[in-house]
Amino acid sequence: MKRASPPGQAQGSVGVGLSDPGLLRQAAWIAGAERTGRDWIEVTNPASGQVLGRIPNLGAEDAVAAVAAAREALPGWRGLTAKDRAALLRAWFDRVMAARADLARLLTAEQGKPLAEAEGEIAYAAAFIEWFAEEARRAYGDVIPGHQADKRILVLKQPVGVVAAVTPWNFPAAMVTRKVAPALAAGCTVVLKPSELTPFTALALARLGAEAGLPAGVFNIVTGAPAPIGEVLTGSPDVAKFTFTGSTAVGKQLAAACMGTVKRVSLELGGNAPFIVFDDADLEAAVDGLMASKFRNTGQTCVCANRVYVQAGVYEAFAAALAARAGALRPGDGLAGVTDQGPLISLPALEKVERHVADALAGGARVLTGAQRLPQGELFYAPTVLADVPADALINREETFGPVAGLVRFSTEPEVLALANASRSGLAAYVFTRDAGRNWRMSEGLEAGMVGVNTGLISTEVAPFGGIKESGLGREGSRYGLEEFLEAKTVCLSI
């Protein structure tokens, strides 16, 4: 197979403090070569407003070319042994880890999260490559006892084919590898459309993959506005599988478009996670858990605690402790010093946070800390804790996606279980209690694809990630994540 040469040097990029400035790419990556266009999209640092560079605003024709490249590369990539694919993925992992400091700075520059969080995300992203490099050799089939004496039944696991992936801005590295690594491990080829807000991390990962030896056409990236590219990726008969992480509304539209060619679809969509603290909880652990779940990435995570229910007996103590911790967070530009919280990704995102806070206050909520914009920059909003939030406030009905914790008081276990399940979202949920029986009852009763019991951090490459109800289809990570890119083929053999 033809080997892809690493992309060429980016031109005209501003300094991000990279030891390898060539990691900042300003071109798409199709069929093992960089591609630019006539139109461009500027990419800015949300903390400072500084223009970091630009990417080509490609369209339908370029998306078709990327799909064609993936289709052409598919037989050769699928024909490699699992061991050979695993070796290439492992080499990719090694290069990502060697470049992790630069990748973290690039991620912070385009996304805004604190540098320490970005470093953690790069390690998390690399872990998916490592995990699926190992899982590539474990795509086992089955031998089923025949239904007749002269028959044998085999089940083969084979790659689905060309995969189209669309990833969001909030985790520009991890959401890429969580989709691309299992697809490549299974023997599929990939066309990726990263968010136009945070494309540079994905393009850097592609460069490192090329340097590791990924063949041309196996991993392609198309940059630009979503609509024309998405129409090709959802409509092309050469794309066998479509995987998307983003909002529920957009996910529904994309899934419907995929049905024209009956593609396999995986969706990781919006959440509205309940976070429940019972009277018998370890309050310090519960505060730690909510700080990790709510304020990580400035509240811009799909598994972010969004509805906080605290039992009456510990309500005031929990609220005071949480407000003290949130008020001590250090917002700022992650590249300018030590910070705990970055900016919101955009002005509409900040305005949504303000709208949710205003609605809660109009309903009688109290401000314990925050509830205001900050002088660090246009998109900075103070870490906020609100008490006495009405159960029917906007902040409890919609995904806030910002640094606001609104506390709701409850009395009984059945009451809070009903409140927690009164949502069409079902991605994640969190429970803090020392009662072993309640742990089981809540874990089984909560309508969510993932439940954290006495922990606010549930994401790992070894566990399946995904939701129920309108929060998505399929699972990512773990051995279940590999299955999403494999077809089961039945072979009935007459002997």
Can you summarize this structure?
This protein has 495 residues and is an alpha/beta fold. It has 15 helices and 22 strands.
Summarize the helices and strands and which ones pair or pack:
Blueprint: E1 28-30, E2 33-35, E3 40-44, E4 51-56, H1 60-79, H2 82-98, H3 100-111, H4 115-135, E5 142-144, E6 151-159, E7 162-166, H5 174-186, E8 189-193, H6 200-212, E9 219-221, H7 226-235, E10 239-245, H8 248-258, E11 264-268, E12 273-277, H9 283-295, E13 305-311, H10 315-327, H11 347-362, E14 366-369, E15 384-387, H12 394-397, E16 404-410, H13 413-421, E17 425-426, E18 428-432, H14 436-445, E19 450-453, E20 468-469, E21 472-473, H15 478-483, E22 486-494
What does this protein look like?
By secondary structure, the chain is α/β, with parallel strands linked by helices. The strands form six sheets. It has a seven-stranded mixed sheet, sandwiched between helices. A six-stranded mixed sheet has the order 9-8-7-10-11-21, sandwiched between helices. The longest helix has 21 residues, at about 115-135. Helix content is about 40%, strand content about 20%. It has helices at about 60-80, 80-100, 100-110, 115-135, 175-185, 200-210, 225-235, 250-260, 285-295, 315-325, 345-360, 395, 415-420, 435-445, 480-485, and strands spanning about 30, 35, 40-45, 50-55, 140-145, 150-160, 160-165, 190-195, 220, 240-245, 265-270, 275, 305-310, 365-370, 385, 405-410, 425, 430, 450-455, 470, 470-475, 485-495. The protein has 15 helices and 22 strands. The two termini are about 35 Å apart. Helix 2 runs antiparallel to helix 5 (about 175-185).
